[in-house]
Design brief:
Two copies of one chain form a homodimer.
Chain A (H helix, E strand, L loop, with lengths): L2 H11 L3 E4 L17 H13 L5 E3 L2 H5 L2 H14 L5 E8 L3 H14 L4 E4 L5 H4 L9 E7 L19 H10 L7 E5 L4 H10 L5 E3 L9 H8 L6 E5 L1 H4 L7 H23 L2
Chain lengths: 272, 272
């Protein structure tokens, strides 16, 4: 998917919501457990209920790997079920030496046909570049994550007077343009998103941390939005586990719509 | 597996070789391709031929994920086939927010029963700690990797006058002892291994980059060895693809034995 196509979908749906499919056998409604593939059954109903209100889906691979080969099969079925107009993100946080990253790229872009994958930057350029060899596929690079540990190394200051996360931002812009790379910037760092937007004016940011992790959607939208929106704001638990009963899908749909309505307001207010 | 058990195996086999099972359908001998599970068939014969000469096996998960659910099943079968006395490493380079890292830990330590997993440090403490909640299981943290991109961020200098990789070394020693954590240090940085040993005297180092990547085994052993050896030196391609013919397993065994003989000499010379 191209940046323009993504923006068109955002305009059409008046939403920049990404629904995180962090599907956990311990948390899905018990009545699904007797179905042949409970994980896929849950995801299918969540997708049906939310697809009009979001523009992207982001399964975190950990939830599927925890179930072994069976979980991997559920992930493949889920991906195939997501409507073609939606942007798909493999939240895999991969990154390895060049020839190995090339295999991860093959796994997520060819074997599974995701639009994008999250990549960890620690191993540097040759660990990221193989993901950029695919037409209309995206790298979403970890820059400043939403968790508490994001302070440990991302906020180290270098001799250049920059934080490590800023060094990642500078270096990676030499590897790819805003048409192939997005950045992960946690909603819990709303104070820094404006500055990061200054350093990367055109890039899309994938913003986790709204919802269960406490980030503020309006604050993020205010400082982070650009002329093509430039934001995909993720919510996982607050949507997919909105109800633990038989009405889980309806409840997820209602929750996604609530966020979409809020986003519609912010698109009017902050798109520039 | 405990550190003491690993050292006993090193003494018994007079080897600190780790064989990397980077098994690629495009590189294995063509006569295997007609078998039901060519990846597992290849690994099985490689393990049979090398198990007396190495103390650890390290499948890199990328090679299995590139084949989807089927590859994941081959990985599970391979792990179950590895003799119990060998240390097993999931070279997965995972790391995510706390609750998600906990799921990766479950995937690799419970679902699959690996002894250890490689973890990327960029997301900090809460991304690493969940892997430490398992008895006799290990985190192998990326510190200074063997690839060219290791220069991009790992060698940034901080205001404290340290490289970023040294900051990782310091911080992570507050999270776990040498009984639960090892470090990845590339053989291509032999000049720095001595200094890293100074900062982490008791930890095991997993050292990739000998063989196809050009690292020097004697140099690494000289500066890196401690009283319990403290080294697992990995070789992948140079061993498993020693021959592309029907004699691939024999050739791999010969190659592994050659490395083991060299290691035997270095254990006499440098163990202290």
């Amino acid at each position: 998917m191209t940046r323009q196509q993504l923006f068109e979908q955002i305009q059409k749906k008046q939403s920049y919501l990404c629904v995180g499919l962090d599907t956990d056998l311990g948390k899905i409604p018990p009545h699904l457990l007797s179905s042949e593939d409970p994980i896929f059954e849950f995801n299918k109903q969540i997708i049906d209920a939310t697809k009009d209100f979001c523009v992207a889906y982001k399964p975190n691979t950990a939830f599927y790997e925890a179930l072994g080969a069976k979980g991997w099969a559920s992930l493949e079925k889920t991906l195939n079920y997501i409507p073609k107009e939606c942007f798909t993100i493999a939240d895999a946080k991969r990154g390895d030496i060049g020839n190995t990253s090339a295999l991860y790229a093959k796994a997520f872009f060819e074997q599974m046909n995701f639009d994008s994958i999250t990549v960890a930057p620690y191993m540097g350029e040759d660990s990221v570049k193989p993901f950029l060899d695919f037409q209309d596929k995206w790298v979403i690079l970890l820059v400043h994550t939403s968790n508490s540990g994001s302070h440990d190394f991302q906020l180290l200051e270098t001799l250049d007077g920059k934080f490590v996360f800023q060094e990642v931002l500078y270096a990676s812009q030499r590897w790819a343009t805003a048409d192939q790379m997005m950045y992960v910037v946690g909603a819990t760092h709303a104070d820094k998103i404006g500055a990061i937007r200054g350093l990367a004016p055109d890039h899309f940011f994938l913003v986790p941390g709204v919802g269960a992790q406490g980030g503020d959607l309006e604050a993020v939208s205010h400082v982070g939005m650009n002329a093509q929106c430039g934001l995909l704001v993720n919510s996982s638990r607050a949507i997919i586990y909105a109800s633990s009963g038989k009405d889980f899908a309806e409840a997820a749909g209602r929750e996604a719509q609530k966020v979409q309505q809020e986003m519609k307001t912010y698109l009017r207010k902050y798109l520039h």
